[in-house]
Amino acid sequence: MARARGNGRPGDGHISRITRLELENWRNFRRVDIQTEGRVFLVGPNASGKSNLLDVNRFLRDIVAVGGGFRAAVERRGGVSTIRNLAARRNPHVGIKVTLGGEAGQPAWTYALEFGRTRQGHPEVKREEVTRDGKTIVARPDADDERDPARLSQTFLEQVNVNRAFRQVADFLLSVRYLHIVPQLVRDPDRSVGRSNDPYGGDFLEQVAGTQVQTRRARLRRIREALEVAVPQLQDLELDHDARGAPHLRGKYEHWRPQGAWQSEADFSDGTLRLMGLLWASMDGSGPLLLEEPEQSLHPEVVRYIPQMLGRLQVRRSRQIWVSTHSPALLEDPDIGLDEVLLLTPASEGTEVRQAADVEEVSTLLAGGATLADAVLPQTRPRGVEQLAFFPGGR
Amino acid sequence: MDEAVLRRLCEHVGSSLGAVHVKGGKPRLLQRLGGYNEAARFGPWAVLVDLDQDRECVVDFVRHWLPNPAEHMRFRVCVRQVESWLLADREQLSAFLAVPRATVPHDPDRCGHAKHEMVKLARRSTRRAVREEMVPRPRSGRPTGPAYSARLIEFARERWRPDVACERSESLQRCVARLAELTAPS
Question: What mean pLDDT do residues A59-80 have?
Fold first, then answer.
């Protein structure tokens, strides 16, 4: 794929980001049509579908991934009937359309996929379309599909021999990374068994170990420097292998002993591990980065600087970053644009998604001196949340 | 950003910051001012806030919010925003933003809106990253770009020279003098 050049800027033909996302009947969304910028902050109550929205990007990635494919991607999610929105009526199919591009001079691509199931219950492509600058590159079903409907069990996107005309799109979708580090999994001694590319960080240490030595050293050094503020006791950070050959992170902590004390990841705090994972992921890869509630286990003063860090990352590495969050400290950043914030509001027909820039009340509150957190979080506050205080009931 | 500036100023007068209370927004900070003032009866406190467009005159502003300052309280108001103090080191700032020095205002204390001035400068930068980080997109609804604060924190920490800036900004000069009183043995 198009790799970053000297100054970290991508080469020609590189796609920087998803600029528009349209969904129909995807899980708890009946219909979504949103523009997305370089950073995308998803804000909504619990169970409003923030993870499901991030999952669209992972789904597309799973189609392209080695050992993946359309059918596996659908089945991994419990099949078409689980993916399809319960309120789906007129159109019984699930539809996804992404518009890709982002920078002047870059071609604008669209990739659209609509799928349902066959009588036997297998996932089936109902429509697949690719355009470049408005010109149609692929339009399925085509004459061959009519003759041989079995072809519709696969997308063109996943097939190397037919996706050549839009390989950039496939490469871009393949570059999507998802991260939601669960510290317990990183520490789990059996973590390496059968996991690869585990979004929950089960293979985090293997990933670190699998990186070229020099790159790894440079990254660990930068992580330690970045952690200087949040974890000032940490003096050194390196990768080590135990007797069984399993990789471990070792950190040297400032200590009452003059030499300091070495600790392995088993002793790192949840916050330290999550922050390390976040920093590692930000340096690893060049495609869209999906972060699930990066604020977890971190001090609010550390969280406060996450948006700035992501802002720099997005500009300097031309990388799109999607973040789901509940955190007031994160949303207090005055440099988060209203066009970067998506508000998820559950309704009877499925969750609605709006850009904060389109919600008049938000701009009015900001003009009056409120922070984005003040303006946005009440919009997503669960109704009747005070009932929780009465739990458990009875006398 | 205010924290980074204050930190540099404290270093400049030979002191260092203790606990920092970042209050995310002026209204919230002013609400808590009474508590800080109470604490300043017993130890040194410095509170930094932007005047913005609130009032014409700093003296009025201070009288309104802090009529009875405690002995160790130093309540400093930037006229009108902390950016004006950064603008006051013209040479370093123009190099940092990659803009001609002549475009950096001569009298930062008189800038009606230093934040706008800073963004206006960044817009002229020959470096793409400066523009994209500091200048807001048209639909963002914000006065500043996505990593505006990060850029200026970097500038305040690594490039900005308080002593040079003092020569151009009287308000900064006064702030430095007041901070120096806090650290001077009494």
Answer: 94
Q: Residue A344, SS3?
A: strand
Give residue A198's pLDDT.
Answer: 65
pLDDT at A206: 81
Amino acid at A47: A
What pLDDT, in 10s, does the model give residues B145-155?
999 999 999 99
- Collect all residues from A whose CB is shorter than 8 A from any CB in B: 37-39, 301, 304-305, 307-309, 311-312, 314-316, 329, 332-340, 356-357, 363, 366, 369-371, 373
The mean pLDDT value for A301-322 works out to 89
**pLDDT number for residue A189:** 60
Give the tokens for residue B135. 């200048």
Strand, helix or coil for residue B170:
helix
| Mutation site for A-interface testing, chosen from B139, B151, B152 by largest number of A Cβ within 10 Å | B139
In angstroms, the Cα distances linking A176 to A17, A62, A355 are 10, 9, 22
**Model confidence, pTM:** 0.87
Q: At what angle do helices B170-183 and B2-12 cross, to 10 degrees?
A: 60
Please, which residues have CB within 8 angstroms of residue A299's CB and are 6 or more apart in sequence?
A230, A271
Q: Cα dihedral sign for A268, B22, B17, B122? A: positive
Amino acid in the structure at residue B100: P
Nearest partner of B149 among B134, B132, B161, judged by Cα: B134
**Phi, psi dihedrals of residue A4, rounded to the nearest 5°:** -65, 145
The CATH fold of domain A17-176: Rossmann fold (3.40.50)
**DSSP letter string, A111-179:** EEEEEEE-TTS-EEEEEEEEEETTEEEEEES-HHHHH-GGGGGS-STT-TTT-GGGHHHHHHHHT-EEE
Q: Which of A229, A335, A358 to mutate to test the interface with B (most CBs of B within 10 A)?
A: A335
| A382 backbone dihedrals φ, ψ, rounded to 5° | -65, 140
Q: Omega of the bond prior to B63 within 30 degrees of 0, cis?
A: no
B186–chain A nearest CA distance, Å: 33
pLDDT band for A385, please (50, 70, 90 cuts). low
**A75 near A117, Cβ under 8 Å?**
no
For the cut 70, the answer to whether the pLDDT of residue A197 exceeds it is: no
Q: Delimit the domains of chain B by residue range.
A: 2-79+169-183, 84-163
Q: What is the DSSP letter of A321?
A: E
- Let me know the angle formed at the C-alpha of A174 by A159 and A201, rounded to the nearest 5 degrees: 130
The three-point CA angle B5-B158-B130 to 5° equals 90
Give A230 or A297, the one with higher predicted confidence: A297
Q: Point out the residue among A315, A335, A373 whose CB comes nearest to the CB of B144.
A: A335
Q: Give the residue numbers in B contacting A (CB under 8 Å), as ranges.
A: 22, 24-27, 129, 132-133, 136-137, 139-142, 144-150, 153
Q: Which of A5-14, A292-301, A318-327, B104-113 has the lowest mean pLDDT?
A: A5-14
| pLDDT tier at A243, thresholds 50, 70, 90 | confident
CB A202 within 8 A of CB A185: yes
Q: Do A38 and B146 touch (CB under 8 A)?
A: yes
Strand-pairing partners, residue A262, are: A252
- As a whole number of Å, the CA-based R_g of chain B is 17
For chain A, which residues make up each domain, given as ranges? 17-176, 179-286
